[in-house]
Structure formats: C-alpha cells, structure tokens
Design a protein that fits this description.
By secondary structure, this protein is an all-alpha fold. It has one domain. Helix content is 69%, strand content 0%. The protein has helices at residues 2-25, 32-52, 54-59, 64-78, 86-97, 102-112, 118-149, 164-177, 186-202, 206-222, 226-246, 252-259, 271-281, 291-301, 319-352, 357-376, 388-399.
C-alpha cells in the first residue's frame, strides 16, 4: 500500500513536472531541443494513458472548448485548398497547430493532467506562469548585460522587442502574486515588479505597453489592490522622472515612444489598411495560411497601389486580419468563437470558485491573458498563435477536474 501511494505520488509529480517545464521554457529562445524533448515526453505519456485508461482519457476531451478548438483547426487546414502556396501553408499550419501549438497542447495538457484535482491544476498554472515570467526576465537581464558590455545602453534601440510577447502573456500572474506571497516576502514581489517594468519599458513596444495597461485595468474588475496600484504608479512615475533627469540622451527613444500619438502607419494605407484592402478582394475564402503567403501576395500587387506606405510587406500587424486573410470569413468566425469561449469559460471558472484562491486566480490569469495577448496586443501585432494552446490546455484541464480528485474515482497506478 505504501509502495503504491509512493508510485502514485511520483507519477503525479512527473506529470506536473512535464507541464511545468514546458510552460517555463516556452518563450525561451535557443532551447528548442529541450522543449522538443519535454513535448515528446508528453506525447508518450498521453499514448500510455490512452492505452491504459481509454474511457477516462477521452472523457477529458469531451468538452465544448475542445470542440471549438477542433473546429478552428479544421477550418484552418481546409484553407490549404485555396492557398496561393499550399506547401508553405501546410508547413505553417503544422507548426502553429501541431508542433507544440494550438491543437496539440489542447490535447496534451488535459490528458497529462486528467487525474489531477481542480486545485492542483490551478496551482500548477500559477507556478508555471510565475516560473516562466521569472526565467524570461532573468534571460532578458542577461541580454542587457551582454549588450552593455558592447557599449549598448538600455532604451537606446529596438533590439529587446522580442521579449514583449512573453511579458504580455504572463503579466496577469504577476498581479496574482500580490495575493499569494506572505507579507514578510513582499520585497521579492516589489523587486520582480521593478524588473518587469524596466524590461517592459526597454522593449520600446507601445503595443505591449497598452496591452499590459489594459490587462492591469481588467484585473481591477476582479480585485482592487489599492496598495499595489499606488506602489505601481509611484514606481513608474519615479522611474520615468529619474530616467528623464539623469539619462536624457540615452532615453530619447523611450520618451519619443511614450509621447508619440500617431498610428505608426498602421491604418489607412499602412499595414492594417493595406491588409484590409487585400482581404476585401477575397473576403469569403481567403488566400491561405502563413506569413509567406501574405508576403508573396502583398509584394505581387504593391505596384498597383502607389498610395500604400510600405513597398515591401512587413505583415498585417493584426492577428484578426491575419486570420481573416488566411482562412476567409469562416476562419475569422471560428477564431472569434474560440476566443469568446475561452473568455466565457475562464470567467465562469473564476466566478464559480471564488472561495478557492488558486482556482480563482488561475481563472483570472487565463481570462486576462487571452484578452491582453490576443485581443489588445493582437490588434497591434500579428502575435503568435502557439501560446493559445497553453491557455486552452490549462482551461480544459480545469473545467474537467473536480475540487477533490477522490471524487473522480481515479487514482494513479
């Protein structure tokens, strides 16, 4: 009996460790082989569970959210039939949906975690997101140090924009940590918040700044941590004033971006305006999935549009327009349904479990992350689809689990 319990505990730890490591490494560059190793281990684990416990495993995917994900995936694959470059579209779809992407993670996470309780899944989400955010900030601080050794100062160029996606995606968990850390350890929260603000400003990405600001305001719909708000605003104001006074030359680009009011050529005749004009030529079926398809189409017709700002494509800079361009109106509809369903179910998890702190804040984290990353930032940039699989996978696992794993009648064996 003792041996069985120990084996069960070890297997549960192994499952959680796989998800934890994968989420932690997801946005980290130059560790692809490690991400693939964890990804393939999850696949092998899922195959084992499918063989050993088929009925309960399949039940873990019997979920409306999963069906919406499947619908979006099928519509995207169907778009290969109208693609201007089918081979490129197939490769891009496989990369975004199967290669630790939207569809694969939506299947793997719920199955790997199908024996976990709701509280366990929620705790894993909070820990994974926190770890991932800390790792990304440490990696970025290392990049700043390397750049400084070469004479490149912070806020002086756009070399650090790549981290902005991960900052927006994981940001909601930073706010949640305010409620998890005990008061004696609040110094760690303030340090993490300060580093986050420094790195965020260093991206010189207004889209990321707006997404984080809106995410913070959304958090106020659930909680009103007035002390945190006062501390955050004070840190920002003090930091900006100090930078302006002590390093005016180094921070010229930073304050230019903060004071800039134009749209950076995004709308009429800009990135999004030209994308919309192309879409209106084939709004029903689209042109096929993938950045390469868009670039080829744009560059092939740009001479016909002398009013367009960019003479070579730099992308539509909008995930919604990109989806519409790729898969037509059905693709836009399926993506919108998936987005709305994630918002609805994550909000529902929050409201139904407001007496359970881990579950409550995991629901908030998913809800704010999907809106901040795909709706707010997605309106300014063509953000990566892959992280959507993390949110869906965790949310399905949350929805299909019980507060007490014993109630499911399932044990690790």
């Amino acid at each position: 009996m003792i041996l069985t319990k120990r084996l069960s505990a070890n297997l549960a730890f192994y499952n959680r460790a796989l998800v934890f490591l994968f989420v932690t490494l997801f946005f980290v560059e130059n560790v692809t082989k490690y991400k693939h190793a964890v990804f393939y281990l999850m696949i092998l684990t899922v195959i084992y569970y499918l063989i050993k416990d088929t009925k309960n495993v399949l039940q873990a995917l019997n979920n409306k959210l999963f069906y919406f994900t499947l619908f979006f995936s099928i519509v995207t694959y169907i778009s290969i039939g109208v693609s201007l470059n089918p081979e490129s579209s197939l490769k891009s779809i496989n990369n975004n949906f199967l290669n630790y992407g939207v569809l694969s993670l939506s299947i793997l996470f719920p199955i790997v975690l199908y024996k976990e309780s709701k509280t366990s899944v929620a705790t894993l989400l909070i820990l994974s997101f926190s770890s991932a955010l800390i790792v990304m900030l440490l990696v970025e601080l290392g990049s700043y140090y390397v750049a400084y050794e070469k004479g490149i100062m912070p806020f002086s160029n756009y070399d650090f924009r790549s981290v902005s996606d991960s900052l927006v995606f994981y940001f909601p968990v930073l706010l949640s940590l305010w409620y998890f850390l005990p008061k004696p350890k609040f110094i760690y929260f303030y340090l993490l918040a300060f580093i986050f603000l420094f790195v965020l400003l260093g991206t010189l990405s207004r889209g990321a700044w707006v997404a984080v600001a809106v995410s913070a305001m959304l958090f106020l719909l659930f909680k009103r941590p007035w002390k945190l708000i006062i501390v955050t605003i004070s840190l920002i104001l003090i930091g900006l004033v100090a930078l302006k006074l002590t390093m005016p030359d180094m921070t010229k680009k930073l304050f230019f971006k903060l004071e800039q009011t134009d749209s950076s050529y995004r709308y009429k005749n800009g990135t999004q305006g030209s994308a919309f004009e192309l879409i209106m030529q084939k709004p029903i079926v689209g042109y096929g999935f993938g950045d390469k398809v868009y670039i080829e189409k744009y560059n092939s017709v740009v001479e016909q549009y002398p009013e367009w700002t960019f003479r070579q494509s730099i992308g539509p800079h909008n995930i919604w327009l990109s989806t519409w361009f790729s898969s037509g109106i059905l693709g836009l509809l399926s993506f919108s349904l998936l987005f709305i369903s994630i918002c609805y179910y994550s909000y529902r998890e929050t409201r139904m479990n407001n007496n359970y702190k881990q579950i409550y804040f995991s629901g908030i984290t998913i809800f704010i992350s999907i809106i901040g990353f795909y709706f707010i930032r997605g309106m300014f940039e063509q953000v990566n689809l892959k992280p959507l699989g993390i949110l869906i996978g965790f949310l399905i696992a949350l929805m299909n689990s019980n507060l007490d794993v014993k109630n499911k009648g399932i044990r690790y064996e």
